[in-house]
Structure formats: C-alpha cells, structure tokens
Amino acid sequence: MSRTDRPQGEQPRRQAVLEALRASDNPLGITELAERLGIHPNTVRFHLDALVAQGLVDRRLEEPSGRGRPRTVHTPHPGMDRGGQRQYQLLAKILLGQLSTSPDAGAAAEAAGRNWGGYLIEHVAPSHQPGAAEATQRLSAMMSDLGFAPEPDGEEAERIRLRHCPFLELAEENSSTLCPLHLGLMQGALTEIRAPITATRLEPFAEPDACIVHLSRRRSPGQGTRSHQRNRST
C-alpha cells in the first residue's frame, strides 16, 4: 500500500505516536503509549512497526530491574526527521540558473556532464576495451538506470532514442543547458570505458515522443594526419 493509498487517519495518528516518543524522557512500551494517546495497543503496535521500518524509531529489549521478562521499548531514532517534503526540483533550478551564468553555458554544462558520466557508467576489468555494440549496450544500460528509456537503432546503433526525460519540465525551460549536460554524461561514460564510439549530438524533442542521440566512430589519434599525408602523396 503506497502513502497515497493509506487511510487519511493513519498519518496523523502515526505522527502522534512519534511525537509522544520524542516528548518522553524515557523509552516507552506499547501499553504506555496506548495510555498516553488514548488508543488501542494494537493500533500503537501497527504504527510502531511502520515507524521502525521507516527508520524513525528504534526498538530494543529493556532488562527488568527485578524479576520478570524483558520488555520491548521504543525511542525516536536520533537525527533529523527524514519525513516531509523534498524540494529537489527547486535545487535543480538553482543549480541550472547558476550554470547558465557561464559565458558559454552549453559548454560548461557539457563539461560537467562528462565529469559525471565516467562515474555513472558500469565498470568492468580495466584492461577490457568494448566494441561498438557492447559500448552502445552499456551506454543504454546507464541511461536506462537514469530513467531515459533509451531505444538504440540496432546493435551497433548510430542513433539512440530517449523516450523519457526524468527532468522533462526542467528540460522544456532549460534545454540550452540541461541537454548539453545529458550529452556530456554520455560522452564521459563512453570515454571512461574507452569505447570506439562517442556521442556527437543530442537533438532535444527531435520526435514527438523522443530526443535523438547521434553516435559516431571515434577518430583514433593521428588518423586525420595520416589521411592528409595520403592525400598529399597522391
């Protein structure tokens, strides 16, 4: 059952259990909590189980001072409450806004993406150098993990469709910085695994339901010089 599927009365009551533990100077058992809150012990037990599972409450056995069995007591888990709202989209907007102040925002975003791409790609043996098909597969796996729903055109694809953007609303407003960042992610990943291909271009919203990534063979060092020398000799 998801958070939105739970009965509306559960969350306020669960919060009341947590607040009662926080207000107490001593660990509390189920019976004590039930008495303080005026609810049935089974209801308290249900909410405590959920709070323990969420990491908000710690449960332990307390040894009795005299004869008798140890009793189970509960204390709030130390640290800041991890419940409540998150504002990651606001944070992303702030960071994109700061990035856009660069003289060449697109190039700065692409460079930032390249730095992270090598970190995000799945690593194998350092001596292993993949072929084009394997590199495309590993790149697609990374983009799939990030939520882009990639769809390569064949095994040795020259294009990859990205059918989902996990930052869609931000991309619609900030494509000039966010899309180069995504391109940089792919370039950095392919460089990290020493792939024979690279991502040369990303077309935002090239199709009604997809962005298009263009791939090409990576030019080996000196390739352009050798071709130029051959042309001169002929």
From TrEMBL:
<dbReference type="InterPro" id="IPR036388">
    <property type="entry name" value="WH-like_DNA-bd_sf"/>
</dbReference>
<protein>
    <submittedName>
        <fullName>Putative ArsR family transcriptional regulator</fullName>
    </submittedName>
</protein>
<dbReference type="InterPro" id="IPR011991">
    <property type="entry name" value="ArsR-like_HTH"/>
</dbReference>
<feature type="region of interest" description="Disordered">
    <location>
        <begin position="61"/>
        <end position="83"/>
    </location>
</feature>
<dbReference type="InterPro" id="IPR036390">
    <property type="entry name" value="WH_DNA-bd_sf"/>
</dbReference>
<dbReference type="Pfam" id="PF12840">
    <property type="entry name" value="HTH_20"/>
</dbReference>
